[in-house]
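for the record, two folds in this file. i put them one after another cuz i was lazy. first one right below, seq on top, C-alpha cells after. the second one comes after a little note so u can tell where it starts
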Amino acid sequence: MKIALFGAGSAQFGYGTLGDIFQSQVLAGAEIALMDINARAVEVVRSYTAEYIKKNNLPFTVTATTDRETALKGADFVIISIEVGDRFALWDMDWTLPQQYGIPQVYGENGGPGGVFHALRIIPPILAICEDAVRLCPEATLFCYSNPMTAITTTVHRKFPGIKFVGMCHEIASIPRYLPDILGTPLENIQYRAAGLNHFSVLLEASYKDSGKDAYPDILKKAPEFFSREPGYSEIWQYVLRTGESVHTEGAEQRFRDAEGGHPRPWSDRRLFKEILERFGLLPITVDSHLGEYISWAHNVSDHRGIKDFYQFYRNYLGGVKPDIDMSRLHERVVPVMEGMVTDSGYEETAVNIPNNGLISDLPGWVAVEVPARVRRTGLEGIGFSDYPRGFGALLRNYTGVYDLTAEAVLTGRKDLVLQALLVNPVVGKVRGLEELVDQVQSLQSPWLDYLK
C-alpha cells in the first residue's frame, strides 16, 4: 500500500497525519510518500520520521520528494493539505481588503469575498494534482483538507467527473465534544447526524441509543444554558498562551474556569451561533468565525472579539509548531476512513464532503455537501436528507451560486465571473468599487491569479 501526503513539509499536517497512520494496524506495511514543494521542509519531516520509525520499530517506510508524479505513481491513497505563498499574509489580504472597500465580512478564509479569492488561488494547484492522479493512480482515493473545501471539492468534481475525491474537515468534532455534557449521558449512548455545507452545517438528528428517544428536544432545552457559560475557543487558547500549556492539554478548559473565576464572556465565539439555535431551532456544528462567512446579517451579531482572538492564536500556534509525532491521540478522521475502505467495514463516518447528487434534495446536485457516509471498499456512500429544514436550507441555497460561479471562473479563467461571484455573494451589499477590489487583489496576489483575464 502507498499513501502520498501532499503538503507534508507542514509540521502541523505532516507530523499529525503520520502519527495517525502509525497508530493503524490495518495500514501497517505501507509506504508513505511525503511530497512538498519546499525541499528543505519535507526533508526535515522525512529525516525525523525515518528516525522515529527505526527507534520504535514500526512497520512503515517513508520517502520524500518535491516531484508530484513520483509521489503519485502507484498511490492507493492521497492526502492533500496545501497552501500557496505566505499563508497568513495572503489571508490578511483576503480578510482586510474587502473590508477596506466597505464589505462587512467577519472572516476571510472560506466564504465571502475572501473565500472567493482564497479559492481562486488554491484550486488550480489542486486541479494539477488531480490531473496527474487520474493518469498515474486512477483508482486512488484523494482526501483533501485544504480550504475553502466546498469550493475546491465542487470544482474538482466538475473538472474530473467520477474522480474519487473527498473533502475532510474536523469541525464535526465539536458535536461529540459537547453533546454528552449537554445531555448528561455518555457519547456511546448518543446517535447523531449533521449535514449542510462545509463550515455551514447543523445537527439534524440526535437520539438516545438505550431508549430510542429523540434527544433533540433536550438539546434545544439545555444547550442555551450550557453555551452561555461555556468558554469560547479564543478564551481557552488565550489562557493556554498565557500559561504555556499545550494546546491539547487535558483539562485546560476546567483550569481556565478555575483561573478566571468560572465566568467566561456570555456566548463567547457563539453569538451568531445563538441566533441560529434560537431562530431556526438547530444546533450549528461550528462557531461564529465560520458560520459568519456565509450569512448576510452575520456581521451584526457575531462575536468579533472572539474571532480576532482566535485568528491571532492560530497564527501564533502554527508559527510555533515543533516536530512531534503524537501517538497519544487521533488528530483527524482520514485514517479510520482509509481503514474502513481497506476492510470494507461499512461503518458510518460522521462528515465527508462529496457531490450532492440528491443527498440534500433542496440543493443543486453539482455542489459538494457535507454529510455522513457509509465507508465501503468501493468508496463512500453518502447518507441523504430528503426533508432538510427549510429555513436553514434557504440559507445554504443563498450561497450555492457563489460556488457555481467560482468554479467556472477557475475552470475558464474568466475575470468577469469573479465579479459575478462577488455580486451574488450574500455578504456583499454594494457594487461600486468591486472591479477595483478584484484588480487590486489580482495585482497583489500575483502570480497565483495571473490566469484570470
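(here's the note) second protein begins now
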Amino acid sequence: MSIFKPDPRGLSLMTGIILSGSGIGALIAPPVATRLISAYHWRVSYVIIACAVLIVVTLAAHFLRRDPAQMGQVPYGQTGGDHRLSTDLRGHSLKEAVHTRQFYLLFALFFCFGFAMFVLMVHSVPHLSELGFPPVTAANMLAVIGALTIVGRLVMGGAADRFGNRPIFIIGFILTSAAVLRLISARDIGTLYLCAAVSGFANGGMGTSESPLVAELFGLKSHGLILSITGGGFTMGAAVGPLVAGYLFDIAGNYRGTFLLCAAISILGLILTLLLTPVKAEPGKGLPI
C-alpha cells in the first residue's frame, strides 16, 4: 500500500467536506464571541455558546446513520445483493505498526503540525493586539484562518485523491513555514491577513489528509487505534506549542522568537514528511524498522 497512490474513491475529498464543519465554526465563532462578550461579558457569553453547541450537536446526532443499509439503500458502487457495509479491513495491526519507523515518523510530524497550527491559532490575536490593532480586527484574523481552512480542506482534499496525501503535508509545511516567517516582519493588516489565509489553507489541507495518510500506510484493520495514537502527537503539539510560545514571549517581550521556533518546527515537519516511505512488508512477514 503506497502513500504515493491516488485514491479514486474520493475519500480525502469526502474527509475534507466533512471536516469543513470545523472551519465554518472557526469562521463564525470569533466575530460572534467578540460581539457576545462586548454585550454580556465573557461568563454569560460562554454559557450562551455552550448551550448553542449542546443543542446543535444533539440535534445533528439524531440524523447520523452507520451505513446506507439502515436507510434501506444500497452502498455506493453496489447494485444489489448484500447491502451490508462493505469495508476492506486489510492492513496492519497496532502491534505490527509500532515495529515500523513510519509509525514514529507519523507521530512526530503530527506533533509538528499541531504545534505550528495552535501557536498561530492561540497567539495570532495577541500578536495583532501587540501591534496596536483593535480587538475586533485581531479577532477577525481567526475568522480568516477559519475561512481558508474550509478552502484548504476542499481543494487539498480533492488534490490528495489525485496525487496522494503525503504531498499535501509537504505543501502544507512549506506554506506554514513561509507564512510564519513573513509574520515576523509584517506590520500592515493586509499582509497579516494574507499570512493568516496561507496558514489556514495549509492547516485545512493537512488536517484533511491526516486520517487518510494513516490508512494509506497501515490499512484499515486497526485504523482507528493507530490514528488515535499517532494523532496523539498532534494533540501533544497543540498543547505544548501555545505554552512554549507564551513563555518565549514573556522572556523576549515580542513574538519574533516564537515565530522563528514555529517556522523551525514546520521545517522539521517537512523533513519528517520527506523521510516518510510506504510500509512495504505484508503483515506478519517481518516489518521494516
